[in-house]
Amino acid sequence: MRVAAVQLQGSADREGNLARAGDLVSEAARAGAEVVVLPELFSVYGDPEVLRASAEPLGGPLSRWAGELAGRLGIWLVAGSFIEAAGGGGRFNTSVLHSPTGTVEAVYRKIHRFDVDVPGVTVLESEVVSAGEEVVLASVGGAGSGAVPVGMAICYDLRFPELFRILALRGALLLVVPSAFAAVTGKAHWEVLVRARAIENQAFVIAADQVGPIGPGFEAHGHSMIVDPWGRVLAEKTGGEGVVLAEIDLGEQAEIRSRLPSLAHRRPDAYRWPAGESGSR
């Protein structure tokens, strides 16, 4: 199966972002990609006021745009994420998986909000969205390539290995991570985290990041990449907008899991969570 990550420099210009995103997704499809992943908040990025104003419901204009694009190109499209307007005035940072017929196959609401204050970047995502509560496993492919279980995550989720381990234990072979990862932390942490999530779960990871200055005082790291279950970077784009593509070999993945069966060697009976913590969450 050929997969792709789109790297995009977003802004508050929704129409411009969507035009470039559509061109890059089409480029990936022409290159044979069956699964394409867009970055986090690819359609609109900006300060909290801009993000709140961009909120729209599932089934709104952005969902229709992504569904039409996936259907026209005949691909599985992870439409990065957008600010979802939910009932009761709530909002979520939401990623949607569209099938090659354009239908919505899965919806993931970002569980971990990016509330940080480190040198060079201060962000309070909780000013804009509520935290999601559901771990989401879907599937892509089918027919010739067979169905592939895919675990959904968004950006800051990379720092929480529990989420990815649950997805792996539920059967995920592929992990998708739309991101707008900060450049200031990305230099030290992005590749390490992406590769770690791939190695420890023996899964392929498609990490699609934004790049460059994308909002007031915020620069995204770029370096979108596709990593295999051994931790090898199969494809990467350092700077600028564009597409990275790679073939994922499920047979090789099965061999890795057979020869180095770390998932099978887990000892849940021996693990003890600290007081006040629960391994069931």
Please specify the SSE layout and strand pairing:
Blueprint: E1 2-7, H1 14-30, E2 35-37, H2 48-53, H3 61-73, E3 76-78, E4 82-85, E5 91-98, E6 104-109, E7 115-118, E8 121-124, E9 137-141, E10 147-152, H4 161-169, E11 174-179, H5 183-201, E12 204-209, E13 211-215, E14 218-221, E15 224-227, E16 233-237, E17 242-247, H6 250-259
Parallel strand pairs: 1-2, 2-3, 10-11, 11-12
Antiparallel strand pairs: 1-17, 3-5, 4-5, 5-6, 7-8, 9-10, 12-15, 13-14, 15-16
CATH structural architecture: 4-Layer Sandwich
CATH topology: Nitrilase/N-carbamoyl-D-aminoacid amidohydrolase
The outline comes out as globular
Quantity of strands, as a count: 17
Class per helix and strand makeup: alpha+beta
The structural domain count equals: 1
Q: Give the rounded overall mean pLDDT.
A: 95
Uncertain residue segments: none
Radius of gyration (CA) equals: 18 Å
| Annotation field: number of helices | 6
> What is the CATH first-level class name?
Alpha Beta
Sheet-strand content, in percent, reads 25-35%
Report what the structure shows:
This protein has 6 helices and 17 strands. With 281 residues, the chain is an alpha+beta fold. The chain has one domain: Carbon-nitrogen hydrolase (Nitrilase/N-carbamoyl-D-aminoacid amidohydrolase, 4-Layer Sandwich), CATH 3.60.110.10. Strands 1, 2, 3, 4, 5, 6 and 17 form a 7-stranded mixed beta sheet that branches. The mean pLDDT is 95.
